[in-house]
Amino acid sequence: MKPGNVGIIGGTGYTGMELLRILARHPLADARIITSRGEAGKSVTELFPSLTGHCDLLFSDPGSADLKSCDVVFSAAPNGVAMTHARSLCDAGVKFIDLSADFRIKDIVVWEKWYGMTHSCPELLEQAVYGLPEVNRQSIGGASLVANPGCYPTAVQLGYLPLVENGLVELDSLIADAKSGISGAGRNASLGTAFSEASDSFKAYAASGHRHLPEIVQGLQEIAGEPVELVFTPHLLPLIRGIHATLYARLNEKGLSFSVEEMQRIFVDRYNNEPFVHVLPSGAHPDTRSVRGSNNCRMSIHQPQGGKTITVLSVEDNLVKGAAGQAIQNMNLMMGFPEESGLESIALVP
Amino acid sequence: MKPGNVGIIGGTGYTGMELLRILARHPLADARIITSRGEAGKSVTELFPSLTGHCDLLFSDPGSADLKSCDVVFSAAPNGVAMTHARSLCDAGVKFIDLSADFRIKDIVVWEKWYGMTHSCPELLEQAVYGLPEVNRQSIGGASLVANPGCYPTAVQLGYLPLVENGLVELDSLIADAKSGISGAGRNASLGTAFSEASDSFKAYAASGHRHLPEIVQGLQEIAGEPVELVFTPHLLPLIRGIHATLYARLNEKGLSFSVEEMQRIFVDRYNNEPFVHVLPSGAHPDTRSVRGSNNCRMSIHQPQGGKTITVLSVEDNLVKGAAGQAIQNMNLMMGFPEESGLESIALVP
Amino acid sequence: MKPGNVGIIGGTGYTGMELLRILARHPLADARIITSRGEAGKSVTELFPSLTGHCDLLFSDPGSADLKSCDVVFSAAPNGVAMTHARSLCDAGVKFIDLSADFRIKDIVVWEKWYGMTHSCPELLEQAVYGLPEVNRQSIGGASLVANPGCYPTAVQLGYLPLVENGLVELDSLIADAKSGISGAGRNASLGTAFSEASDSFKAYAASGHRHLPEIVQGLQEIAGEPVELVFTPHLLPLIRGIHATLYARLNEKGLSFSVEEMQRIFVDRYNNEPFVHVLPSGAHPDTRSVRGSNNCRMSIHQPQGGKTITVLSVEDNLVKGAAGQAIQNMNLMMGFPEESGLESIALVP
Amino acid sequence: MKPGNVGIIGGTGYTGMELLRILARHPLADARIITSRGEAGKSVTELFPSLTGHCDLLFSDPGSADLKSCDVVFSAAPNGVAMTHARSLCDAGVKFIDLSADFRIKDIVVWEKWYGMTHSCPELLEQAVYGLPEVNRQSIGGASLVANPGCYPTAVQLGYLPLVENGLVELDSLIADAKSGISGAGRNASLGTAFSEASDSFKAYAASGHRHLPEIVQGLQEIAGEPVELVFTPHLLPLIRGIHATLYARLNEKGLSFSVEEMQRIFVDRYNNEPFVHVLPSGAHPDTRSVRGSNNCRMSIHQPQGGKTITVLSVEDNLVKGAAGQAIQNMNLMMGFPEESGLESIALVP
């Protein structure tokens, strides 16, 4: 028997499915419960045939599932669900990792404005740890409630991190032009993400404002210790998995004092010990497929025409490092497992 | 018999094919000659079966083809070829439209640096008119040699035009994050654009410097009357046709004095009489498929969080408004045909 | 004013949209009314931005729309709707072309079994003409009610036609392995056709029985004058537009008496005067993109290893020759317009 | 140190890459040598960045590589290469698994006709074991030279096996309509498999005769003990990984004596103990994505209209069960490792 007993709330979406895929190969943790209001009683492999032979769970009703018997519970349900479970699970001593947005934003006014609902569990916001291991590894290790970052915020923050931590850029000049594969929209029937509508096409969406904006700004501001102004434009890519963030920032005086080679060194040093962040040689261009199915974030930097702007290219699989993989990484830290457990799988290329 | 006799140099690529597709339905012009060194003697429909019933030309050898008998000649050959034809065709009174980059850049030093070859016909650079009708309609009408703009430069310049013409943005703050469908790489066998490599993936390329950068800068500077600094990042989209330019600029004092509604009005007014540029309602998001196969450029503007940055989203079909369609538009102007002749076809959606 | 006044019932799907795209360029017919229960009052271009500048209709309520004032009415609504309109339109002398399945099957018992509803207008089944011009051109010309064929049935019947008409194959040996692009499933939000589910994947569906089977069998039996046994397996292709039917039949004694060259001649002769059916050289392989957006059906024949089985490869655009294009072709015949009017557009390649 | 020392000849294609991906996670075998004429000296991760952190080999020159020091050598080179290595490796006691076609066909005349070259090592054809574990598990275990099956032949033979073994179908009635993702064409620059040519399109190829035909026929004949007639039509799917074989056969008297349920039972029983073949419930439709990246073959059966024809739907990942995965499975058998070692990875869905 594996030491970690895992429950999943709301497991019929892509992140729930991806948690199961990763846990099936995890040496130390076992999915024991997976809930779904709509599919209770059905076997997981009926919905997800690719898991045949790797998972023999049935979906159970969230009302009757004994989640408190688990060591760790993930919530892969839509926004607004995890906050109804957090209190009781935390009280029962269950470690809780929320893949939705319920505990990501510290400022409840900001959260309620962007998410359009009343928060039912604001008292836990304070103790919730933002689950970006490259920033908060220590606190995640001791946390009982982790807010797993959004997909865009992971790729964007990791790309900006070395620049902001070292005070190299003008903090009111950030522009994140981000592109996501369609799985980011979830496992839903909707006209906008239908094959005949979204295939062989490309467009921006929410260019005037997207929910991941305040999350990114909060994260960068915490590091900078001063206000950050960010323009964030998400786009819909005609591919399944993958986020590519093209990040721009104007170098400040300190930033301009470094050569490209020194800048490259700053990035390399920052992520040298990070198991899942790879800095490519300066001038390279990471492609999203190179992380497809893996928990890696790969990035490279450019300084076009040796000018005032630095460009960071950052890619990840939105379902792995951008969701389920990072959640498992957080579980590993919280449970004291080796951080890479279950996350060694190699990107599927081609 | 149609009044316009057309020749095409180097017709085996996508732009040559697209010229044929448009000319086949053009009421006033007729493709009479199409040259190809490699395919001479072969019928066009053997290479391009979709033209069956619409084109009965054979490819002819560029050496023996009587291009001087044409009223208009397009060069759809790679960079470096058109400049070897321009002199003799212009001398013969043939109108010449070059779809390559040979005559786009006025500064020969800049051109030779970016294109890595010696220009064999610099004396015609002066009289070559840059074929962006929305800027140079008048001069194109009287031109004998037109440099058809690049695909990215068309989408980018059209998007920035109203801002630069009206002096609304800081000219050293321009960032063009541009994405192109793979047909922009031409009809070639190359590993990088193979289906198994480029499909279900996304990446930037030439982030440190791309040949279309000096072309865009030249165009915007001419309008601004002062230096322009641009960061230009091209990306490869896993789709066939379509360019999406996401354009950022920091509003200057004058720019900030306008409301979004007023800004929207400036764009609408600028393009009101343009047959091929459509300004969408403020806050909309054009998708590339909405122009697939058509000569339209569609755009919209956003001012995220009412901040200092304006975002313009601009889409076109890289093979039509970004190449062959714009070339036909230029031909129409040069020949005194109605500007929309042959270009009425509707985007193929879905 | 164009002589043909056109109405469209249920215009918010892909076939309605495609009718509008074709009619916008039709020299002799004009869309005047388009109905939609759900979108009444909205402008067509709000739903279909690619039609901007080409269509200024509003959707009107089917209850109040004056369809009887039209010369021709198309029904692009789901199965079961056209049969409620047919009686009154036919009585009013309006020519009626139904793109759904309501009038395709002559045997009402068979129809009700496969379509799972009661037919409300069985008395018109007799006079409804099956709108496959390559078989029924004459009767279509005089018809007031035309049942436009299904997408698969068009590609399959055209491929088998020369073999069945000439009695060259064993009629109980037909196997049609057909593949359709996803637009064939309509403009709907459904999980199965979501990009993240259907992209980068392929599968059969309804392999045990599909509604288009009885339609194909009926058509081939009518020609053969004897029973036909067909195995029909549809598959879902990860592309937007296109049907590829791979058709197998065992040659009978007569069939085996012909050489491949003679067989090729039989196909060529059969379709020699057909404007929209192209027979490729024997041994060729048509691809679906070569008909994308055009009204053509392209086919080729193979006799593998000189054996007993003949293979026919037949492609069409499911939304054009497989739906809206063929409907316009039928309208042209019914109205006495040139058969190719409005249907000259060239496939969009690449 | 892992007990199995592995060498790979010709490792720059997709099957070489896939061998590396699988071996990197294999608990008992280690890739030690990988040769490439063109890339000798380069690091593997320079070509295949997705392997970063999982493989630190350099490509070595085939001339100087000490392949004889390996326990097992795979040849992932093009046809014609393995036969030049087989003799010396076998003499040195190295187990040799050829992923090309060099040792698949026993009849050298047939081989030389279809592959258009002279066989340089015909004396080893006799002892080469055809590496389809579901048929030849025993002999593979004792083999020193294994001919790894082709991608199509694996999916087709596994689908027909239960029918042919049990004598249920007319052996001159087999029709295999097979569709492959584009990675089956290899990691090459070629116009036909360029994204802009192959994407959003579909076509058959080699419909008059494909090299995998004699391989399939040989395999089925060996089982049947009598001649088999097969029509085999391959098609190119616009997706990266996946083969879908739609298999038709006319049931003979014995076959017709079984109900569908009994037929289903025959399939289930046949593959009950096979770790990598899954029989779905009768009437189901496997999709290629459900095996993407996994070593599984999934299949289902249909008897349309309860008629004389049985339809088998069989899917696999052409690079895994259709190539590298099956080769590893063969290595496991030859080396006495557990058959599933290294092959437990779950399909990447979505």
Which helices and strands appear, and what pairs or packs with what?
Four copies of one chain form a homotetramer.
Chain A: E1 4-9, H1 14-24, E2 29-35, H2 44-47, E3 59-60, E4 72-75, H3 82-91, E5 95-98, H4 108-115, E6 129-130, H5 133-141, E7 145-147, H6 151-165, E8 174-180, H7 195-198, E9 203-204, H8 212-224, E10 230-236, E11 243-250, H9 253-256, H10 260-271, E12 277-279, E13 297-302, E14 309-316, H11 320-335
Parallel strand pairs in A: 1-2, 1-4, 2-3, 4-5, 5-7, 6-7, 8-10, 12-13
Antiparallel strand pairs in A: 8-11, 9-10, 11-14, 13-14
What does this entry look like structurally?
Chain A is of the alpha/beta class and 350 residues long. Chain A folds into two domains: 4-127, Rossmann fold (3-Layer(aba) Sandwich), CATH 3.40.50; 152-318, Dihydrodipicolinate Reductase, domain 2, CATH 3.30.360. Chain A is built from eleven helices and 14 strands. The first copy, chain A, has helices at 14-24, 44-47, 82-91, 108-115, 133-141, 151-165, 195-198, 212-224, 253-256, 260-271, 320-335; strands at residues 4-9, 29-35, 59-60, 72-75, 95-98, 129-130, 145-147, 174-180, 203-204, 230-236, 243-250, 277-279, 297-302, 309-316. In chain A, the strands form two sheets. Chain A has a seven-stranded parallel beta sheet with strand order 3-2-1-4-5-7-6, sandwiched between helices. Chain A has a seven-stranded mixed beta sheet with strand order 9-10-8-11-14-13-12. In chain A, helix 5 (133-141) links the parallel strand 6 (129-130) and strand 7. In chain A, helix 6 runs parallel beside helix 8 (212-224). The two termini of chain A are 35 Å apart. Chains C and D meet through strand 8, strand 9, strand 10, strand 11 and strand 14 of C and strand 8, strand 9, strand 10, strand 11 and strand 14 of D.
